[in-house]
Amino acid sequence: MVWLVAIHVLSAVLGLGPAFAFPFMLRSASTAPEMKRNLQQVSYLETFPKIFGTLAVLSGLGLFFWGSYGPFMQVWIIGSLMVYAAIEILVIGFLNPAAAKLLKLLGESRATAAEPPNPEMIGLYARTRNLHLWSGVLGIVLLTLMIVKP
């Protein structure tokens, strides 16, 4: 059981940790090439939340079913799963499409490093950053539920 706790905690740290940095990595970009570079860096690091976030959920469920945590219908368990589902909906349904559209626009852009990005790019960049921020806020709620569990 101790090894499963270790896997759960480490995967939560490795899964959520980088995600908290994404809004900061996307905080400023005054040119299209800067936007593209920032988005590509975030895209590369998103591998950690995808892999380790999934592992955290699976190991958490394993801990619950193999441990003695009481009935399944507890606020911290249902709340945690609902917050995790909300994060997934936010990321898969809203963030990824906005980021993909922005990367497509940036790829098609002929803007030089000296030119400011067009208003559509600026709006999509802000939306992507804000969605990353909201997923981070939900991640804090998720961690809080894990800490305050009985």
Report on the structure:
With 150 residues, this protein is mostly helical. It has one domain. It is built from five helices and no strands. Helix 1 packs antiparallel against helix 2, helix 1 packs antiparallel against helix 3 and helix 4 packs antiparallel against helix 5. It is elongated and about 60 Å long.
**Number of helical elements:** 5
Q: What is the total domain count?
A: 1
Distance between the termini: 18 Å
Helix content: over 70%
| Total strands | 0
Short description:
The protein contains five helices and no strands. It has helices at about 1-25, 30-45, 45-65, 75-110, 120-145. Helix 1 (about 1-25) runs antiparallel to helix 2.
Descriptive labels:
mainly alpha, elongated, 5 helices, 150 residues
Fold topology:
Layout: H1 2-25, H2 32-45, H3 47-66, H4 75-108, H5 119-147
